[in-house]
Amino acid sequence: MTLKVYLSGEIHTDWRERITEGAGDLDVTFSGPVTDHAASDDCGVAILGAEADKYWHDHKGAMVNAIRTRKGLMEADVVVVRFGEKYKQWNAAFDAGYAAALGKSLIVLHGAEHAHALKEVDAAALAVASEPEQVVAILRYVLSGRLPAGAD
Amino acid sequence: MTLKVYLSGEIHTDWRERITEGAGDLDVTFSGPVTDHAASDDCGVAILGAEADKYWHDHKGAMVNAIRTRKGLMEADVVVVRFGEKYKQWNAAFDAGYAAALGKSLIVLHGAEHAHALKEVDAAALAVASEPEQVVAILRYVLSGRLPAGAD
Amino acid sequence: MTLKVYLSGEIHTDWRERITEGAGDLDVTFSGPVTDHAASDDCGVAILGAEADKYWHDHKGAMVNAIRTRKGLMEADVVVVRFGEKYKQWNAAFDAGYAAALGKSLIVLHGAEHAHALKEVDAAALAVASEPEQVVAILRYVLSGRLPAGAD
Amino acid sequence: MTLKVYLSGEIHTDWRERITEGAGDLDVTFSGPVTDHAASDDCGVAILGAEADKYWHDHKGAMVNAIRTRKGLMEADVVVVRFGEKYKQWNAAFDAGYAAALGKSLIVLHGAEHAHALKEVDAAALAVASEPEQVVAILRYVLSGRLPAGAD
Amino acid sequence: MTLKVYLSGEIHTDWRERITEGAGDLDVTFSGPVTDHAASDDCGVAILGAEADKYWHDHKGAMVNAIRTRKGLMEADVVVVRFGEKYKQWNAAFDAGYAAALGKSLIVLHGAEHAHALKEVDAAALAVASEPEQVVAILRYVLSGRLPAGAD
Amino acid sequence: MTLKVYLSGEIHTDWRERITEGAGDLDVTFSGPVTDHAASDDCGVAILGAEADKYWHDHKGAMVNAIRTRKGLMEADVVVVRFGEKYKQWNAAFDAGYAAALGKSLIVLHGAEHAHALKEVDAAALAVASEPEQVVAILRYVLSGRLPAGAD
Amino acid sequence: MTLKVYLSGEIHTDWRERITEGAGDLDVTFSGPVTDHAASDDCGVAILGAEADKYWHDHKGAMVNAIRTRKGLMEADVVVVRFGEKYKQWNAAFDAGYAAALGKSLIVLHGAEHAHALKEVDAAALAVASEPEQVVAILRYVLSGRLPAGAD
Amino acid sequence: MTLKVYLSGEIHTDWRERITEGAGDLDVTFSGPVTDHAASDDCGVAILGAEADKYWHDHKGAMVNAIRTRKGLMEADVVVVRFGEKYKQWNAAFDAGYAAALGKSLIVLHGAEHAHALKEVDAAALAVASEPEQVVAILRYVLSGRLPAGAD
């Protein structure tokens, strides 16, 4: 059994690396958005031509990025959505809703301080974690049935 | 043709009333979440029993509220999602993602100051408006083909 | 908004009546299986001809009953599944799984003594209640946003 | 043709081994739930943190287990559900309902003493067997067209 | 509960009348193909222009008829397929397969002499009847839970 | 049986009126795009604000119009697509493809001179007509089984 | 591009071999029912236990065979259905209807003498052939764009 | 991540080669229609027999071609539709509508002179390009996150 996991959300910390490295020995394939912030913002105009209006500049980029994110979300077995400390992160919540409507297994990753604001998102999830290593432990358990050492 | 419209998001201003009243002469049925903030937060424990842990208190409420919101979203032709000035509003973005994945016609309603942060959400929308009256004008046009007086 | 509610499971107590009567003032339509135990067991052979073998006797009845139960489940917004004190009640759990796979809002109704054995079923539910009156309160809240008197 | 087979239900006897070993020469891949009872019960709290309340302890585990079981059920061609001698086994019946709603080919495995109680589940199945070796014979026939030696 | 019933197959006997009249007191709506044999054969060329080639004459008619039959099949809760004494009746079996793939409740109506030839069709059905009155009895039971008088 | 019919395509002749008037006695409901060419082109900017760039002017209008056309197409039983003498009419062909992918019954209406260029579109249709009155005759036949007078 | 082709219908002539051998150089995988007539009839009772009643003997076999045929039909890109000279062949027409409802590309293979009786089945097909070699030529063309030598 | 890309539309220029060669180093698989115009027009009659009537000659070919194009469209992640200088190209717009209804990521490729006529098609797209090399750049960015050299 190979698990296909999509890692959505916050791009300013190393949480993706902590998951992909922690799960390095597991039968998992990861996908996610482009995490180069500048490239992600500018991809539309860089490829398809400049826009005078900032709104359409952003729009063209968001549309091109959607080619990647929709494929990743649609093919995933598990969608992990990380909410960090800063920014509105509405795209993370959007991805969570999108994944929920597709019937994906959703894991939400956030600190306790966001629990109340994220209660509707968490309510659609099969697991709510605070640390990336917990996500790794879930993937390991789902694939092998093994719990973390010392967990008993 | 009757349009079924779901009004998602911010609950602290009168935008819902401005839409439902403005569209009073149209063949539209509206639905939306429970907008009584206290009832919405407490419905789970009020009906199903108290929880010592705030997380589960919130969780039970969010699950009960989902009975209403999922039905509204699934039955809607058009989903309007409003982002206001305050709070994280992740549930609004979650609803937008959910609606997008279901193939609903999405209208996003927010001020220009949120345009960059909402670019992925806007990219999934068929219209991005800043005022509730614009949503009314869209509904009127969709149903009747008539544009606002003076619009030409 | 009309809620379509399917009442599945235990047929030996008055829980269905307590719900349908309690919700008498609400915009709800109820459906459910045939609750006349003898008719339900014998409908296949009574209509389509006797069977020498008890297995096929039961089978013909279960198939005819499925015409009704599948329609009820597929058209429902909310599926309430009641587990009682006696019998295996595998058909109730089957209906719960069927409803979950269809993405229905699931409410499970059982006593605390069954909580551990039903944890996988409860995990697919949006609400777990112990009394029929709680189901009524949920339906009332979902439709009107009103909580039970004294709940605060 | 590779058959993907999910083995659901009872975890206290060796029926899974009898099937996987008996089908060792066939083009079949098997999946199933975690069958380590203690790990399965505790996986939620072991990974995501302890719960004071037994209900939420169970709930967190059931949710994490659902990541595995939903994937197995959704990807399967054939779902085999075993009902044993003991316990309520509502999760087995839940899986059978879930599989039926997804249109999976369902094989139910149980002793004759449960036939009446399982008649609704059996009615959704393409085969009802009493011994694991019969399941192996079905898989062999489906893949190769060969019947058991002496079967004529 | 209103049952939508599609009556497919043989058009040379009065079985449809026996069902629609027998079910005259029930909350059932019936649909079915055009049963005027000549009109059904010629509708394509009569409306869309003559064809020199008999094959295309037939084809144009079959396509126009499909507008009606697909709608009837897709909207039905229950599809009754009748196999009579004469002709190949491949369109009846085609409709049965179409209905089965759509997950409709299928009732097959035929004499015992066709049982072996129809075993794959019957295997997809929830009921196999030999007389139209049995179909009426099923519809009555499904809607009301009442069995035929004298059936006990 | 009520037929829901969507009338897509060319907006410069009276073909829609010829169909809706011809079918005035039938149980049919019609929908279609906004056929006021100027309003259709300008609806986006008239409601949501002017655009300096003609491309985005058009884009905003096309998106708003999609709210109406997608609903009409998705709810229709029958989609009639008319190709006229002038213009590229790519939106008509787009609607035909959209309808085909949704499994709608497609009727294509065009003159013989376009037959070769439309062969892929026609291949997805259940009927290809050249006059609006033929569409009316099809709707009448589908609903009532009656062929045009003199057709035999 | 690999084409997955399901070969349904008549089992008394060598048409399957003529197709699979003719397509031996193409990127095609074939599946189909068990074509050993005796095994196909008896598989149910041979594996799951004898039945006194011939109807249930047949039924058990048809159900077990459905595990194979449903998988083959559901996974196919192209479903070829062959109608031969003899027997009712209702299972072939059933498979054609099943494939049509799933949106599969359907090729029907039959002699001209059956054209009228099969007009509804042919109307759901993308090709109607009379010889297995034509099916091979279609598969070759679909994969490579090459027409048969001499075809011009 | 492998992207499956379907290249639909105009067959008279080298745009397909410019894309497939430009993307030669990427993890992309391409599919598309048969681009040999004569073979594409005649495939139906060449394989299945001549037709006296040009309409049916075309029809048989369009149906056979649909076996290939439907598979390509249904399996694609990204559908690129090219509109060229000449011809009606209704099949290109049909494919765009088909892809849109299936929820595929749509890229439209056309010169600025067609922008107004294609506004409804463009409105369903995630990117609108004028040069094949822009499509290559999009595919490269989607797979690797890298923008074209000099794009900043």
Describe the SSE topology:
The structure is a homooctamer of 152-residue chains.
Chain A: E1 3-9, H1 15-22, E2 28-31, H2 37-48, H3 54-75, E3 78-82, H4 90-101, E4 105-109, H5 119-122, E5 127-129, H6 132-144
Parallel strand pairs in A: 1-2, 1-3, 3-4, 4-5
Helix pairs in contact in A: 1-6, 2-3
Element order, helices and strands of chain A?
EHEHHEHEHEH
Structure summary, number of beta strands of chain A: 5
Shape annotation of chain A: globular
Largest sheet of chain A: 5 strands, parallel
What would you say this structure looks like, in words?
Chains A, B, C, D, E, F, G, H: This is YtoQ family protein. Chains A, B, C, D, E, F, G, H: It comes from Rhodobaculum claviforme. Chains A, B, C, D, E, F, G, H: Pfam families: Nuc_deoxyri_tr3. Chains A, B, C, D, E, F, G, H: InterPro entries: YtoQ_family_protein. The structure is a homooctamer of 152-residue chains. The first copy, chain A, has a domain of 101 residues: Rossmann fold, CATH 3.40.50.450. By secondary structure, chain A is of the alpha/beta class. Helix content of chain A is 47%, strand content 16%. In chain A, α2 crosses α3. The first copy, chain A, has a 5-stranded parallel beta sheet with strand order 2-1-3-4-5, sandwiched between helices. Chain A is built from 6 helices and 5 strands. The longest helix of chain A has 22 residues. Chains in contact: A-B, A-D, A-F, A-H, B-C, B-D, B-F, C-D, C-E, C-G, D-G, E-F, E-G, E-H, F-H, G-H. The interface between A and B is large, with 38 and 38 residues.
